[in-house]
Design a protein that fits this description.
By secondary structure, the chain is of the alpha/beta class. It is 36% helix and 15% strand. It binds adenosine monophosphate (AMP). Adenosine monophosphate is lined by residues 31, 33-35, 38, 57-63, 99.
């Protein structure tokens, strides 16, 4: 074994080249591993780059843009503020300021929130006690600027947080007025959940050669996917699947299952009914997988039963429907799965089957994608609702090729 192999490589935040005082502050608050946005943004920021970061709230983006500033901060009693963070709402300002004061490398490294609805005098007192970072909403910041109670001539680190929301609610002229009061020699960061053209235009006007990080799964921003869920008893899922296929008549669809064995079982049952069906999971040999994907791409396979091996990155234009036969345990996988449809501006449909015990999983997904998934009611399959007394035998309507016969029902 070589000596190099014996030397332990730094991991977690220690791999990011942060100063000992920043690392010990992180230890104190219990941040061990950087989140993806932190791992991506911090090295670029430390290298002096401007950064446009696409990331959602709750992904650790506050620390991502604060830590590089803390890394350069020195306890020298310099006049401040040296950093300015603009955010759209009072709540967000307070939250950012709290996080800043919590993870600051020293209590003399102070962050002051500047928001409307508070007394000017109190804010002035706070500012006079020393202020390295000002976090504020644009309106109140402008008030301070016009009264001369704040100066930004020392600001060399500027953050526009939730830039898409700021532009949404018409802050743009205010922001531009504030930016004009900041030195042009500075490092600028723009964080935004989405990057619509006005945000990008703003970004390029106020940033130099910005490095672009996109960690919002691209699909989070795909508005063209119609998402619904169906509440279903576990033993009625297969029947529901057949019904959904009949009703929706997908051009091409992927039916996602959580386990290889389950995918194989659904496929075995489904191919008794439909012709152009295939299965894809990690137990298949690579040549077979390649062949199936090829047939799916060409459209000769219309319905692919699959595990998450096809959850990411697969780009097949014809996919009109994603059926989450099993809800994924990880909300991120939900986003990756449904992102297989609705690509390049095409419409897509994503239907999730939710069993009674999976309510929390669905809630987690909704929190992650930051939107409510509406229910599509199919009462006859719902475990919570009374079943109909009699069910008419179903007649198969040809979909996906033709095997015109009644299908067998799996319970
Ligand atoms: P944010 O997206 O900045 O609002 O952060 C979301 C939450 O994650 C906050 O409660 C942070 O305190 C927490 N957080 C941020 N970074 C980390 C990390 N590396 N490890 C653990 N928790 C973190």
């Amino acid at each position: 074994m070589t000596t190099a192999a014996l030397v332990e490589r730094p991991s977690g935040f220690h791999a990011l080249d942060l100063s000992p005082s920043v690392l010990s502050a992180l230890d104190r608050v219990g941040y061990i591993e950087p989140t993806p946005i932190q791992a991506a943004l911090i090295p670029k920021a430390l290298a002096g780059r401007d950064v446009i970061g696409q990331a959602q709230t709750g992904t650790g983006k506050t620390a991502a843009f604060l830590l590089p500033f803390f890394n350069r901060w020195r306890d020298r009693n310099e006049p401040g503020p040296q950093a300015l963070v603009l955010a759209p709402t009072r709540e967000l300002v307070v939250q950012v300021a709290q996080e800043a004061n919590r993870i600051a490398p020293h209590k003399r490294c102070r962050t002051v929130p500047i928001i409307g609805g508070q007394r000017f005098r109190e804010q002035l007192q706070e500012l006079r006690q020393g202020c390295n970072i000002v976090v504020g909403t644009p309106g109140r910041i402008l008030d301070h600027l016009s009264r001369g109670t704040l100066q930004f001539d020392r600001v060399n680190y500027l953050v526009l947080d939730e830039a898409d929301r700021m532009l949404d609610i018409g802050f743009r002229p205010d922001i531009e007025r504030i930016l004009r009061r900041c030195p042009s020699e500075r490092q600028t960061f723009l964080l935004s959940a989405t990057l619509p053209p006005p945000v990008l235009r703003l970004a390029h006007r106020y940033m130099i050669d910005a490095f672009h990080i996109n960690l919002s799964p691209a699909e989070l921003t795909v508005e063209s996917i119609r998402q619904t869920y169906v509440s279903v008893a576990a033993h009625k899922k297969f029947d529901l699947l057949l019904k959904v296929i009949e009703k929706e008549r997908p051009r091409q669809c992927i039916i996602f299952c959580e386990r290889k064995r389950w995918a194989q079982e659904i496929y075995d049952d489904l191919r008794r009914v439909f012709k152009r069906v295939a299965v894809m999971h990690g137990d298949l040999e690579q040549p077979q997988r390649t062949r199936i994907m090829q047939r799916f791409r060409e459209g000769s396979v219309a319905c692919l039963v699959a595990t998450d091996v096809v959850g990411r990155g697969i780009d097949v234009m014809g996919i009109s429907h994603i059926i989450n036969y099993d809800l994924p345990a990880d909300p991120e996988n939900y986003v990756h799965r449904i992102g297989r449809t609705g690509r390049m501006g095409k419409d897509g449909v994503a239907i999730a089957f939710v069993t009674p015990e999976q309510g929390e999983l669905l809630t987690n997904i909704e929190a992650y994608i930051n939107r409510e998934v509406p229910e599509d009611r199919h009462e006859e399959y719902d475990a919570f609702r009374a079943p109909k007394k009699t069910q008419e035998p179903k007649v198969y309507v040809p979909v996906f090729g033709d095997r015109s016969r009644k299908y067998s029902r799996r319970l």
